[in-house]
Every structure is written in structure tokens, then in C-alpha cells.
Amino acid sequence: MIADKAAIRILVLDDEPFVLKLHMHMLAGLGFTSVTAHDNAADGLAWVDAAGGPADLILLDLRMPRMDGIEFVRKLVERCYAGSLVLISGEDERVLRMANRLVQAHRIPMLGHIRKPVPLAALAQVMDRWKPASAAQPRNRKAYSGGELRDAIARDELVNHYQPKVNVATGAVAGVEALVRWRHATDGLVLPDEFIPLAEDEGLIDALTRVALTRALADAAAWKQAGLQLRVAINISMDNLASVTFADFVAAAAADAGVASQDIALEVTESRLMLDARAPLEILTRLRLKRFHLSIDDFGTGHSSLSQLQDIAFDELKIDRSFVHGAWRDATVRAMYYTSLGLGMHLGMQVVAEGVEDRDDWDFVRDTGCELAQGYFIARPMPAAELAGWIAAWPEQAVRLRA
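The structure assignment produced for this chain is given below.
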């Protein structure tokens, strides 16, 4: 709940005077009284540029004459706008979704989008998501160099955190996914999206993956010795599969750790186009013959596609989080989810729903018959030392979720 609604500076842009008055009346009824309205984007930009601006929040109509809402967003980016946006339009849901993704790509905090005519309840729900710019903005990303990452690998600064996967019907813990982090001496724990693309660009992804995989195997062996039988999933890039020695390395590392190949899943994420399929197909086929499980990660995004399912004998399909979170309330997302789920089930694959962020997501995934789930609602990624404690506490939560 927002503490001081009257202090939030709001700009409302819509080319229909009646709609402007209606939105201002609705906002006032919700307690937002510091509201400025303009019926065209040019005047709105002038207000943003003036001493009286900028706004903490802008309610933006997409379809306006002369300068539409999309062009207005680009102008905001040029001005380094630090507030939040709510998109409002009579366009269909798919157009709103396109605009929503564009705003997110510009790194402007999006509270949501609403179709006209705007219901008061929907506006209230969206407005409750507002946070001050300092809280809404993520930590500034730092650009690391290939040399820094190479040194980090050499200094053993990479660590694995583990996120559980659970059986939705029974609540049983089915396994964990190893997610690599960089324990930076000054920046703290650096998340993978800040250094994995760098590793791929600098030719370091193979060395990075081998370190993460070796560490995951050691943790798996320790859990097994402690009586925890878990399938451990490890992410591999298509760049790893360019080396014909990779399959032998994985098999040897598992044998050295005393971990059975059946207890290891290799999650293949194809972040870039596979130009030559021969080496990856050879390696994946050999790994499958050695009884390692193969999982297609982030299905439906990037280059993870139907053709991969045709060519590679995957055991598991992971539905990307963008098709899971909020699918219960969004028809377009729901259609993507059902398509992925049905495809995996028809092919006899184990299906994992990623991105289960809240109880609504959990209930939706459970009710649709998806076998496994993973996401913050279940557990955030955690250090290896914390996993046993989480597993011990999980059954009590799982009982409540089955109610």
C-alpha cells in the first residue's frame, strides 16, 4: 500500500478530453490528487521538460494523433526518464503486450497495461504497484571485461546456487538446477545474466561451464552421501557443444565424483543460432547414449524451437517463465503455455513450468496437470549448504499447497 498517494506526481496523456477527465476523477477517488493532464504528447513532453516535471508516474494512451504513445516513450528514454509507466489503450491485448515489452526493453518500470474503458478496480490494482524510482530501478549493471572474468575463473570465484524443482501433484522434491554466480571481491554476488553473454563472446563459456559442472557434481555426491537423492540439472550452452571432447569430459567428471549419469540433467539453452549442427548432435547423442538426461531450456524463446525437438531426443521440456507467470489471467500467455505443455506431454517428455512466482501461478500449473514446477514461490536459488534445511522444511509448505 502506498503511504502518501497525494505526493505522487502523475501525468495523464489521452487525446480524448472526456477520458482525461474520467481518469483524473478516478485517480482522485483513489487518493491521487497531484495529477496533470494533457490531450497530446507534445504538451506532455513540454511539461516533462519544464521545471514542474518530471512525473513519478505517467498514464499513457498509445493511440494519439501526431505523436503516438510509442514515439512518446522513445522521447522519454532520450530524456532519461526515471519514473514509471501505465499503458492505456483500446487496442487489443496483443498490441498492448508488444508495447509493454518495448517499454521493458527500454528499462522503464512498467506497472501494467489496461484496456479501455478502464475499470476502477483494474486502475486501483495497477496503481498499488507503484514504488519510488530508487526502489523500482534495478541495480546499475557493471560492464565487466573478458580479462576480469578469465581471472575470476582462475581464482575460483564462481559458485553455484541451487533452485529446487518439485512435483506439483505430490509436493516431492524432484531435483535442483545449478545456477552459477560470480562472487566478486567488491561487487558482491554477480548474477549470470551479467557475465554469461560475456563468457560466450570472449570464448570463456566452455571453461566456465566445466567449473560449474564439476562443482555441481561434487555437491551432488555430498548430498547423496547425506541421504539426499536428487537429480542435478546443469546449464550448458551450444558453444560448449562445439568441442567433440565435451561428452567425454562430462562422463569422466561424473564418474570421478561417483554420480550416476541418470542423476544428471543437462539443460541446453541455445542463445545463439547453431550454424553447424554436426558437432552438437554428435555430442548430445553420445551423452544420451551414456544415459545423461537432456532438457530443452527456455522452450519457445530464442532458438529453442520445434526443430530441436525433432532432431534431439530430449527427456525434459522446460516451459519458459514468460509463458508461465500470469498465464492464469492472460489469454495470450495461456495459449503459449498450453501449446508447450501439450507438446511436451504428447512427446512423452517430463515438463517443468519455470517462473512460478505466486500462489495463482502454482494453482494454475497444478490444475493444468504439469508435472514439475520451479520458481521463487517455491524457493529462490540458494547455496548448497542451505539445501538440506530447505528440503526438511518444505513438506509442511507442500501440505498447505495441496489443500
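Interim note for the steering committee: The domain at 5-136 is CATH 3.40.50.2300 (Rossmann fold). The chain has a mean pLDDT of 90.
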